[in-house]
UniProtKB/TrEMBL annotation:
Pfam families: adh_short_C2. Keywords: NADP, Oxidoreductase. Belongs to the short-chain dehydrogenases/reductases (SDR) family. The keyword NADP applies. This is Uncharacterized protein. The keyword Transmembrane does not apply. It comes from Penicillium steckii. SUPFAM superfamilies: NAD(P)-binding Rossmann-fold domains (SSF51735). It comes from the Eukaryota. GO terms for molecular function: oxidoreductase activity, acting on NAD(P)H, oxygen as acceptor; oxidoreductase activity, acting on the CH-OH group of donors, NAD or NADP as acceptor. Transmembrane segments: none annotated.
Length: 277
């Protein structure tokens, strides 16, 4: 009887213990973001920093595409680690340095990725291996290293992996069979890790963007000028996505506001997966 009454009391208070704004803060957290020297990763790193998190940026490029000292007004620590996600020795060393430099790891966003757009019959073994190495193996081992630290810390953690709408819908003018396979692997990995890591308080979700204007997309448009038209007219919302369209949802998945959300894939594609022109 007493425990029933306690249960009633806690049900009454559960949604008032924190405001939405409090639950969406990342103050005091450390977030690792891979592939964040530019593009989507950079924007997601900025989003997590805006929510108050310290940030470790990992990328194979020599330096980030923008001067991170301009982010000082956010009053968080931001450190850049030049690291190739396909080299486990480099990755292991970098994750150890992050723990040492920033005091731990609470969240991880995996955005490092490569795309390959060519007919299925023209795909070659080496280029396919490269895609799988970066998009699947790199993501897999970053999630492993991040979650090992989260488990050691005995604190809650959140991992968000960037998949792609390519895993949900194929567009006739784009030929991305191996890329699609790699992103389908990320969606499946999300579900497997959500189950395996739940007992440690670690949530794992993926986000599948549609066409988002970044260097990756612009490089494709430079090779094929018709593509810009495809990207901006195929989605039912009749526009290409912006990196700002992803910041909120990824930030949310990192925070306590998403504390009961794990193993899900959030599609951010202007409606493309539901139908296209
Ligand atoms: N732009 C889109 O329309 C779109 C759509 C769906 C999914 N995505 C995914 O979003 C992620 C980011 O894409 P983007 O458009 O910002 O691309 P981008 O090319 O602008 O950025 C990718 C970043 O990953 C880094 N990277 C690549 N290989 C690496 C490696 N071995 N080690 C460390 N870093 C490495 C690159 O240096 C680059 O900074 C990718 O996983 C991509 O597949 C992009």
């Amino acid at each position: 009887m007493a425990s029933e009454i306690n249960a009633k009391e806690s049900i009454a208070a559960d949604f008032k213990s924190q405001t939405i704004f409090e639950s969406m803060s990342l103050k005091g957290k450390v977030t690792v973001v891979t592939g964040a020297a530019r593009g989507i990763g950079l924007a997601l790193a900025r989003g997590a920093a805006e929510l108050g998190s310290d940030i470790a940026i990992l990328d194979s490029l020599h330096e980030p595409s923008e001067d991170l000292s301009s982010w000082e007004t956010l009053r968080v620590h931001i450190k850049y680690y030049r690291t190739d996600v396909t080299h486990l020795d480099q990755l292991t060393e970098t994750f150890a340095r992050i723990k040492n430099d920033l005091g731990g790891i609470d969240n991880c966003i995996t955005a490092a990725g490569l795309v390959l757009d060519k007919p299925f019959h023209d795909h070659e073994w080496d280029e396919c291996s490269k895609i799988l190495n970066v998009n699947v193996m790199g993501t897999f081992f970053c999630a492993q290293l991040a979650s090992k630290t989260m488990k050691e810390q005995k604190k809650k953690g959140s991992i968000v992996m960037i998949a792609s709408n390519a895993a949900n819908v194929a567009i006739p003018s784009r030929n991305m069979s191996m890329y699609t396979a790699s992103k389908g692997a990320i969606q499946s990995l999300t579900r497997a890790l959500a189950v395996e890591l739940a007992e440690f308080g670690i949530r794992v979700n993926s986000v599948s963007p549609g066409f988002i204007a970044t260097e990756m997309i612009m490089e494709a448009c430079r090779r094929d000028s018709d593509l810009w038209n495809v990207f901006s007219s195929k989605p039912p919302m009749q526009r290409i996505g912006a990196r700002s369209d992803l910041k909120g949802i990824v930030g949310y998945l990192l925070t306590d506001a998403a504390s009961y959300t794990t193993g899900t894939d959030v599609v951010v594609d202007g409606g493309l997966a539901c139908g296209h022109s």
